[in-house]
Design goal:
Layout: H1 11-24, H2 31-37, H3 43-56, E1 63-68, E2 71-76, H4 81-88, H5 98-110, H6 115-122, H7 127-135, E3 139-145, E4 152-156, H8 158-163, H9 175-182, E5 199-200
Antiparallel strand pairs: 1-2, 3-4, 3-5
Helix pairs in contact: 1-3, 5-7, 5-9
Length: 210
């Protein structure tokens, strides 16, 4: 039985393995996970292969390697979104209603934000919509506002980043562009700069509002 170490992969082979892993992963695959899966390869080789693969996808036609939610994902290029949408006949923001998309946009751009504040911006009762967004893991309760009643504060989730192809909320487009893409008129208050909330931590036993 040989005690020889497993030979290192050539760069081209390592790139091919990484490409297969990124493509097959149902979620964005992180560098940490790549290093774990490729633990026989030096980390610097894995990093070099990953960077080389990203460079390959710069001119790869309809696909690119996107940094999403702290990991990497092979996606269609944004400029071809309309053609991809034709394939599925409708947006796959998983068939969210206009009300849900509006509410999700308010949370994304104003987070952390309370249900009352969302309702004031949208001028409707949002409890049912919030429940839907919570069930779909697009939003989560991130704390409580330090005011009378200590209402829940809502923010977006990693699933939101993945669904909309963002690495973090700092990558959000201008609200006008987002509203145009999703097909609704943005409330003027969304154009204003958000004021940081004084947030209290969640306590054991806190549950989502229904």
């Amino acid at each position: 039985m040989s005690d020889e170490a497993t030979p290192k992969m050539e760069l081209s082979q390592l790139k091919a393995v990484i490409e297969a892993l990124v493509f097959a992963s149902p979620e964005p695959i992180t560098p940490r996970l790549l290093n774990k899966l490729l633990n026989d390869e030096p980390k610097e080789d894995v990093q070099a292969a990953l960077q080389a693969l990203q460079a390959d996808y710069v001119d790869r036609g309809g696909l690119h390697m996107a940094e999403v939610a702290g990991g990497f994902q092979i996606t269609t290029r944004p400029e071809y979104h309309e053609w991809v949408r034709r394939l599925f006949h409708e947006r796959s923001a998983t068939k969210l209603s206009v009300a849900a998309l509006e509410t999700l946009s308010v949370i994304a751009y104003k987070q952390p934000v309370t249900a009352a504040e969302i309702g004031e911006i949208r001028s409707v009762n949002t409890s049912g919509v919030l429940s839907t967004l919570l069930e779909r893991h697009l939003i989560k309760i991130v704390g409580r506002k330090n005011v009378i009643g200590r209402p829940f504060l809502y923010g977006t989730t990693k699933e939101f980043l993945i669904r909309f192809g963002l690495n973090d909320v700092g990558d959000l487009p201008k609200i006008e562009d987002m509203a145009q893409q999703l097909g609704f008129e943005p409330p003027p208050v969304l154009m204003e700069r958000a004021v940081p909330e004084e947030m209290l931590p969640l306590e054991e036993g806190d549950v989502p509002e229904q």
